[in-house]
Amino acid sequence: MTLSVVIVAQDEERTIGKVIEAATPIADEVLLIDSGSTDRTIEIATALGAQCRHQDWLGYAKQKNLALSLANSDWILSLDADEILTPALVAEIKGLLERGSATEYDGYLIPRVLFIGDTPVRNGGFYPDAQLRLIRRGKGSFNDRLVHEAIKVDGKVSSLKNEMLHYAYKDVAEFESAMDKYARLSADEFARRQRFGWKCHPLNELFHPIWTFLYRYLGRGGIKDGVIGLALAKIYSDYVRKKIRYLRDLQNSKA
Length: 255
Description:
By secondary structure, the chain is an alpha/beta fold. The chain has helices at residues 16-23, 41-47, 60-70, 87-99, 172-192, 202-219, 226-254; strands at residues 3-9, 29-34, 51-54, 75-80, 83-85, 107-110, 112-116, 119-121, 131-136, 140-142, 151-153, 157-159, 164-169. α5 runs parallel beside α7 (226-254) and α6 packs antiparallel against α7.
């Protein structure tokens, strides 16, 4: 069985080379959908044998679904431009396809390790962060969401044991900036679906962030990650607070 690796990217020269190099041993084709890089992303990807195509940004789900639609293989592995397969995961996927046992399911979840710089985060609710990324062609697509998009599969789903590495943020400050963007997008998503009600209540704004911090830092073991664990728990708590405030602003503007 054949495998297409599809990647959406823009200005990802920091990681794109490692992403493609790690996936190449199991890929019959690597397709990169670029939304307007001004750095060396296209140059690096092309040199490593990837097929590159430009598409103005359509939104997370639509951009990734376009990538899925262009794949030609029996199976598709959808990756972000900062997700690197480990050798163990490559071997696991290769064995799955060679044995033909992949046909028992239509999709596979892959555990993912978040990195802040070069530091892995394995606690605080950030791991295993399993993502459904390996699917049989024609059996799945990303749901129509502004943020936190995920593949929905028409069929049976299983999980792989080995993990991919998610080099998403250069430092804590970049993580914090991203969380502010996601808070706005998440609030927009709730508003689009007319989900207001208790979510906008002042008591929810007061207690939900506190609960989030305690749950992630103590309940999910963020304390084990030291200084970074504390920082991420605080930022995620603030992300919840901002999302509630942004949602209330949208509710008031509609009213």
